[in-house]
Amino acid sequence: MGTSDPRPSWLLAGMDPKSSYLLEIKLVGNPRCRKEVSCFIISMVVDSDTCNFKDLVDEIVEKYPPGYEELVTVAYYDAASRNHLEVKTHQELLAMFAKHVDSKVVHMAIAYTLPSEILEWPNL
User: Highest taxon of the source (predicted)?
Assistant: First the structure.
């Protein structure tokens, strides 16, 4: 009688499967400032019990800094409304995790735009 491991392959050793999430993050660059690449994807595994909004954004922005005068906007794709919903606070981050409690995978987007530009979210 074999037992199957219900843990997803992306879950890191020692992480709690009940509170861990895979973030698939599209980084969307300003095409006027970032001619070398306009969009690429990074993956992160986070524990929703210890992750907070400010630290999450700071970690990403440190690795992928915005250009001069660029604003950083964070959102996730909400399948129910078929829209990207912006995340601006820790409470909104927790709400995002709650909406993905069954799949444990969150499709996010982080956009780098100039203040005068209209933000357009990428298609999934």
Answer: Eukaryota
